[in-house]
Amino acid sequence: MLRPDYPLLTERLLLRPFETGDLEELFAYQSLPEVARFLYWEPRDLEESRVFLQQKMAASTLGKEGDWLVMAVVDRADGRLMGEINLRWHSREHRQGELGYLFHPDFHGHGYATEAAEVGLRLGFEVLGLHRVTGRLDARNDASARVLERLGMRREAHLRENEFVKGEWSDEIVYAMLRREWDARRPGRSAAGAGVQAGGQVDDGAAQRVGPPDREGHAEPGEQ
Question: Are 172 and 159 in contact (CB under 8 A)?
């Protein structure tokens, strides 16, 4: 099992599990049409956000293949919930993972998504021991693509009309990074040394390919 030693701190952000008191701020961005635009789901009402908050609260660890680790991203200066990052453990055998993030538009344009997503990559590579991490997004989401590129991820594929979403065919872009590419960008830095405490450990778990039903783990939307 991987359970980060919460809270995880960066220069401006605090990452922690979701809490009951996050409902209003979670609903504040899940209810926005511009947030849901490139996702599977439509803007949510308060009760729908309440249901998904419970799911997020239960996703503070990675116990087996198919699990998502979901972390709330909070402004260290004032404690506001800004958004979230997600890390999925796809495969133990092939050491594969997937990165995602979702932020309130009020926090776009300041590098917060990049700063938080870097923590997700660090956990994936340096703590979970992944070999490859991907990020998938709607091909129209240029802002999210820029976040992945700033992280140093490579654009690997453009899948033409591979999904029928919200009444139309949509393209998907796939970005990826290998562990050696991560190491090349972060020479001499470890998870703990870079401000991420590598608490917990990985143990054996039954294979179960289960992801969020609403594409919340995808790398979108990003920052403007």
Answer: yes
